[in-house]
Amino acid sequence: MAESLKVIVMLAMLGSIGTTMIILACALPTYNLWWPIFVVLFYILCPIPTLIAKRSDNADDGVRAPNSMFATIGIVLSSYALPIVLARADVIQWGACMLTLAGNTVAYTTILAYFFGFESGDSSIW
Q1: Could you tell me the CA-to-CA distances from 29 to 21, 40, 66, 91 in Å, in that order?
Q2: Tens digits of per-residue pLDDT, 55-97?
Q3: CB 107 within 8 A of CB 57
Q4: For this UniProt entry, which segments traverse the membrane (predicted)?
Q5: What pLDDT sits at residue 17?
Q6: Helix axes 94-118, 61-88, angle to 10 degrees
């Protein structure tokens, strides 16, 4: 019980650090544009293919796992590509892009730690 509480507190702290980096990329007076906040949509979409594949009752696990992994990787790469494209198009500054990329890394590390820490009991799909 105490060990899982420590893990939950650690995940909450990592999640808040990642979110703070994203908000700083948007709200600092130097940058002052809120376009990087759209990567939060990718955070919401990221675990959905894996959750759908794990909850499905279909018997062909050999097809579900690669398809869900492909969709998840596409969503994660899109969240890294969006700030780079915005910075290359001079919509946001490169400092905001770097803060967003750092926030992405922390956020996805948090999501990955959650899936390995709490969802590993029923990980027959992987």
Answers
A1: 14, 21, 43, 15
A2: 776 656 667 778 888 999 999 999 999 999 999 999 999 999 9
A3: no
A4: 7-27, 33-53, 65-86, 92-116
A5: 96
A6: 160
User: Is the separation of the CB atoms in 53 and 16 below 8 Å?
Assistant: no
CB atoms within 10 A of CB 101: 19
Name the nearest CA neighbour of 13 among 99, 107, 97, 119: 107
For the stretch 106-125, pLDDT in tens is 999 998 888 787 765 554 44
Distance between CA atoms of 110 and 92, rounded to whole angstroms? Answer: 26
Phi and psi angles of residue 58, each rounded to the nearest 5 degrees, phi first: -65, 145
Is the distance from CB of 16 to CB of 22 less than 8 angstroms?
A: no
Contact 49, 71 (CB under 8 A): yes
Location of structure tokens 């198009």:
89
